[in-house]
Records
---
Amino acid sequence: MSNFRKYFPIFKQNPKIVYLDSGASAQKPDCVLESMTKFYETTYANIHRGLYEFSEKSTELYDEVRGKVAKFIGAKDPSEIIFTKGTTDAINLLASSYSKLLKKNDEIIVSEIEHHSNLLPWKNLEDVVCAKVKYLPVLDDCELDYDWLEKNISPNVKLVCVSGQSNVLGVKNDIQRIIKIAHSVGAKVLVDGAQLTVHSKLDVSLLDVDFYAFSGHKIYGPTGVGILYGKKELLDVMPPYQLGGDMVESVSLDKVIFKQAPSKFEAGTPPITEVVGLGSAIDFLENIGMEKIEDYSLKLTQYLQSELLKISGVRILSSKKSNAIVSFVVDGVSSFDIGVMLGQKGVCVRVGKHCAEPLHNRFGVDSSIRASVGIYNDENDIDKFIDALKNVLSLLR
Ligand SMILES: Cc1ncc(COP(=O)(O)O)c(C=O)c1O
């Protein structure tokens, strides 16, 4: 059994469940749940407002997590960390704010494998500012076409937006190479780290990433909280996204002076307790060690792929390099039928287009089945999944 399973109360309540949907959302370890309950029970109050101990302590904890996140992803300064509701919110913040900095015919490059969260906010800027979106293609072996990027990069390109790891293919993209190409013409790079953050140690300063987004709920933390990292000098020139309380220095009916980043991007009461939970999730990951986590999930993914390939008619969309995520189709059998029947057997996988419809079009499939592993999974889970899949296929074919 996975050494880490014991930390997840959901598996004590549901010992038979085979949870292979961590790519959609990860289960929560007891330290995350306990930190949030304890915070509500002992300390909770709104932040940056009260002059009493609870509020001061809550503010302290909230700001402490900002520092923890900065350290976790290698940001130079906590002020480069903006708390958002999640990756989707982070990318919408960036796109909305950038829409004020872009002009007609400025180009944005987005890869064709992106989750809709990193596609639609950019596509929308075609309507909002008449920007032009170009699509970085993916090759048959699941690698992005870096040669295309080299040929198509130009001073007109202002932003390149790519995922660190595809939520369908599970393959890590060569962020370093993309950044080098983009920076050669002064374009900025957003990395969507929704899938990457939980499996890989990363250092945004070392990589020289301009913007980085991820969600708490995919890294064993709570829902409702996420991060947008941005280099300080870029955040400084970006206008706010939402307007409201706790983001202004002063307001008169004639004049508004906004606070510096990150406060100017955090209007209103933020997800305080969720931020506390996110801090515990980061502690949890760091106590295990990111290298160990990556190694563990790579081995498990290889086992998953090798077992899947023994089943006739299975076509894997992912490549051998995939980590934690394997998407596949079965010739002549509906993915949805398979998913429903697996669900009835207590096997949780995702079926559909996984919010990446252009990617499915590119690979010529209508939908796929995605199995994704977390640190609570082990070979035993994979064996149960494979047995259930064989059984389902024997009934459907
Ligand atoms: C690659 C990728 N980007 C963005 C998102 C959106 O994340 P969220 O729904 O947490 O905002 C997801 C979610 O599955 C994802 O996998």
Note: The longest strand covers residues 157-163.
---
Amino acid sequence: MLEVVFLGTGGSMPTEGRNLPAIAIRYQGWVLLLDAGEDVQRQFERANLGTNKRQAIFITHMHADHILGLPGLLLRFSLLGRIRPLSVYGPNELIQYVKSAQNTMHFGTTFETTVYGIREGPIFNVDDLCVNAFEVDHRGYALGYEIVYQRPTGSFLPETAMNLGVPKDPHWQALSAGQEVELADGRKIRPEEVTGPKPPPIRIVYSGDTRPCQSLKQAATNADLLICEAMYASEHANLAEERGHTTAAAAAQLALDAGVKLLALTHYSPRYEDGAAIIKEALSINPNTILARDLMKIKMHKDGSHEIILPTI
Ligand SMILES: [Zn+2]
Ligand SMILES: [Zn+2]
């Protein structure tokens, strides 16, 4: 349904085991990329995310650890002959950044690249999925993103289908998968006629870099998954405040207060290489917390459940 792939879980500097921020979300043939930290193109390869998929890139802010991988990724797609157009969204400076990277390094792309400077609000929409941006509290202009997937139909109602005279074979399966069917007598049956009310959307929220703030809490309210930075443990709460970041404890508390179903902590400082201090602190406040690792995946199923797949390499 929706698959989140953590390509990089580091913050500020890469370490031996962790790359810089990049998160891919797979959805019906699409790859949505949140941030493009250094080495994202290699992680793309390792996660087998393809070259010519329908794709959009969302950048949270212009700090180097979140954008250094973008020119390399564009170059990679060109070298591999991508033809599908690609849209990139982020702060206004992103337009100049991509342009000057291409001009100074003398590379064009084999595909149409459009960079949009955005403010908060709805920015992207495809099929049943949309992406909204919201401003967060970092150093300089910074955004977080909310990915909203509206599940197309409620659960299939066999009795209603029977009452409407819809034969089980071959139509029930198509209707429960959200497709309209035509009966032998010419009647068309829409999935909404034989399914319960639409379930609430599946919502994934990504904080980018930020201090704990009201806009993040609001976006994260009742989210299925909050991917939140946790740069420091509480021992460095002063650094978090000074540098515009969140501690593990503050992330855990914010997720708890917002009713988040699952909190995944990422962008933790190189000083916590194994992340043990980060996850320990967060779990003491919020048990629905996991620590993201590079190439870890979270599958978000249609029924609202999730599955965590740890990397094998
Ligand atoms: Zn960062
Ligand atoms: Zn930053």
Note: The chain has two domains: 2-151+199-309, 158-194.
---
Amino acid sequence: MNVKDIYVYIEVREQTALDVGFQLLSLSQTLKEQYAAKSIAQDVVAVLVGHNVEKHIKTCHDYGADKVVVVDHEVLNFPTTEAVTHALTQVIKTFNPECFLIGATVVGRDIAPRVAARVATGLTADATHLEVDPADDSRLLLMTRPAFGGNLYGTIICPFSYPQMSSIRPEVFVKVLYERPVVEPIRFDFSFTPKHTIEVLERKVKHKEGGDLKKAHMILAGGRSMANHVEKLQEFASSINATFAASRGLVESGKVGKDIQVGQTGTSVRPALYIACGISGAAQHTAGMENAQTIIAINTDPEASIFQFSHLGVVGDAVEVLKEVQKYL
Ligand SMILES: Cc1cc2nc3c(=O)[nH]c(=O)nc-3n(C[C@H](O)[C@H](O)[C@H](O)COP(=O)(O)OP(=O)(O)OC[C@H]3O[C@@H](n4cnc5c(N)ncnc54)[C@H](O)[C@@H]3O)c2cc1C
């Protein structure tokens, strides 16, 4: 089969194109360069799926798309499993991409395995690192993801079927302005008759505790040991305009909700500053915050592994340390 190009699903929910799609377009430009170094020409193609979505075409080019395939249909106004699976399957069967990347959002996680099964290929879910195999005669994508609860990293290849498919969580990669020239989009002829196996009667937006962690510029996070000091930490966080977050240890204490959990099974974040208070630094936690620009850790245990990830470490009681710092604010 003649396969070509790196395709990226751009998820649009009620007129908003999610950032993760743009992050994956930028990542794909890096992969394109790696292919180019082996004299393999690839384009980066955004697959823009939704209703009245052409306004997002320029942004796709801004963040790295060489071409945009538009799948526009009123049933796609909100991305339902049935419709988006059908749309992406049709796109793959029509264009035969070499690689296909999907943001591991709630929708992405739901549709990615379904699409992979329908086109009879493999899927690496929640990859954290992607690169083109440096071996001269190889076109393989090396897809690395945490395994065994984050204690091991496994690199997965998909050598016998196409596309080489991976889902990637939001904020694992950054979007980069490439400002590729805007070209006429490829308008995909999408016909779809819903089977109505599932009917959505109403959508309610869930109120998230503590604002949007992904967009936070500064985060102050508490660990299990802070269960009796949550209010103090929250007060300190708001005094420095930081968003309050938690490790799973603190979530398990029942004092805060899972919405604010950072880590492998929580949210991945990339703030300018991350202050970890009483967090041990388990791999599943650091997987979600190690990309912060500056990490400050406060922990009573000088051997705590969080210090290996920190730019600045303070050995001490987090509540006492914050109390001292407060005097200077
Ligand atoms: C499949 C899987 C997925 C997981 N996903 C996540 C995830 O997404 N996010 C996540 O966070 N975890 C996750 N975990 C759990 C993870 O392995 C750890 O158990 C968890 O991160 C520990 O939380 P903690 O650091 O708050 O608590 P602990 O490990 O109990 O550490 C508490 C720390 O507080 C320090 N301390 C005690 N008192 C004080 C004090 N007064 N001041 C300062 N420091 C103090 C201690 O020295 C210790 O280092 C996952 C686990 C599994 C198996």
Note: The mean pLDDT is 94.
